[in-house]
Write a structure and sequence with these properties.
single chain; 339 residues; alpha+beta; four-stranded mixed sheet
Length: 339
Amino acid sequence: MKKRGIGIGTMLYAIGFGFNRPDIASALVEIAEDGTATVITGCAELGQGSNTVLCQIVAEELGIRYEDVRIVHADTAATPDAGPTTASRQTYVSGNAVKLATADAKKEILNLAAEMLETSADILVVKDRTIYVKEKPALSLPFAKAANEAHRRGRRFIGFGWYNNTTKDVDPETGLGDAYATYLYATHFAEVEVDTETGEVTVLNFATAHDVGKAINPLNIEGQVEGSVAMGLGYALQEEIMLEHGQILTPSLSEYYIPTALDMPDDITTFIVEEEEPTGPFGAKGLGEAGAIPTAPAIINAIYDAVGVRVTKLPATAEHIRSLLRHKEAQGHVAGEAR
């Protein structure tokens, strides 16, 4: 017999190191004579999409195209320190550093543009690769023209940004304090089918809702969430390190089973919740580890909803679920005999 159930997992997750530990990032941004820009950052791209996001931040701040921005990253000989890619911190911490660096370079090019337009820099706006007077859009010049003029005059526009996310410590007596700058929130929903004869669990459908602040790249968020669900599914149902007398019995992927496309649910729906974080770059907070944290709880709760057994040890393999079901049946028989 197969039974279905629905489960929910909810979490909050702090961004950065917190608890008064140094959490710092820095970056450089240079505007070239053709109006393109280069961001130089120590942020390590591990597949999470930080290179894309940081280039988008530069493009938005300068009012140029994403295609006009290149990145030099994670080269200890050439890039300023951005801290490690961990603690779901890079969009927030390095993103702020990059935004500050871009604003620093932008300030100088606007000063030059003000000279060229014979106006004041504080009333200039940059958008769609054009610098113009806010109240008089017709009074304008191409962004690239100002950049070219700067280089003709021997001026280089290089901005530097430094962001400190270090928070205050928590009072050990009261537990109160400024532990973290901001938090991520998420809820995952799972629908599963459990075979009561074999114990096999199939995840049929999955839905997620993530508060990311401002979604700088929604498609990147969807992709990261889907990958995170795959990781969480493996953690919940399949991936297990087996030890015997200190010897690892699962030394390779032929024994350590990770999910494949066939193990994934037919549908993963991602809801992006945008509650702008005032301290984040353009309101962004990020995603990171929050994508995987609620997945296993949602699946385990769905199993309980389906067959009434509570899993307290992961992974919830078919053998483990079958054992729990048989134990539940045995308890029921004993209870029946006692009556």
